[in-house]
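Quick check before the chapter quiz. The format below is the same one you will see on the exam, so make sure you can read both the input and the output lines.
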Amino acid sequence: MKKIKVGLVQQTNTADIHENLKRLHANIEICVNQGAQLVVLQELHNSLYFCQVEDTNNFDLAEPIPGPSTGFYGEIAAHYKIVLVTSLFEKRAPGLYHNTAVVFDTDGSIAGKYRKMHIPDDPAYYEKFYFTPGDLGFQPIQTSLGKLGVLVCWDQWYPEAARLMALRGAEVLIYPTAIGWESTDTEEEKSRQLNAWIISQRGHAVANGLPVISVNRVGHEPDPSGQTNGIQFWGNSFVAGPQGEILVQASNNEAQNIVTEIDFTRSENVRRWWPFLRDRRIDEYGEITKRFID
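Here is the expected output.
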C-alpha cells in the first residue's frame, strides 16, 4: 500500500519578492512539520501575478533554469527531504520566455520541468504577451515519490492534457494555479466560475482514476494600469481522490497551508471498478486532433 502526505501552500503575495520567498519557506516548513512529503506551490509564486498588464519591464522578473530560484528551492527540498513542485517565470533565451513548473526531488536535484502548454489571453490574464507555449509535451516527472503529472493553471480546463499525462503513467495530476474573480462580476457569476473550475478538475480525477492536487493563489492583487479593479484570487485549493471526492479544501479568502494523505492503491482499485482506460475506443478518436470537425 502506497500512501504519501501532500502539503498545499495557498499564499497571498506582495510586490516584495524577498518577503514572498520568506513566507513560502516558512509555509513549506509548516507543511513539513505536519508530515508533508510532497509540497505544491501556487502558480508564479515568487511575485505578484504580473500578467494583469502588458509591460515589457516585467520580463525582468524572469530567470534561467537552473538559476537563482532553482538554487533556493533546491536547497529547501534537500533540507526538508521533500519533493517540491514550484512555478517559475523562465527566461530560456533573449525574447523567449515560458511559464515553467520545476520539480525538485528529496536530494534537492531538479527531477524535471514542465512548460505550460495552454496560454490564455483574456482581460487581466495577458499571458500570451509573456509566455511561449510549452514544447516539452505532456510528460510526467519521475520522482522518488512517484510519477507526477504536473500541469499549470489554464491547462486544468483541458481533458486532453490530463488524459495524456495519465496515459504516460502519471500517478497524480498537479495544477499550480492563479485564478480569481473580477469585482464587477455578480455573486451568481462568481459562483458559476468557481464551481466550473472545481468540477472540471474533479472530472479529470474521475475520467482518469487519479487524485488531483490544485493549488491556487488567494487575496486581492490590484491592476497596475487601473483599467480593472484587479483580481480577487479565489483560493479554494483542494485535493480530490480518484472518484472526484474532495479530500481537503482551503478557504476562498485566507492564506492557508493544508496537508492531507493520498493513497495510490485507491487509484488502482478505482480503475478496476471503473475501467475507462480499457473501454476507450482508440480506433475512433483520430479526429480529436482536428481544430473543428465541419
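If your answer matched, good. The first helix runs from residue 17 to 33.
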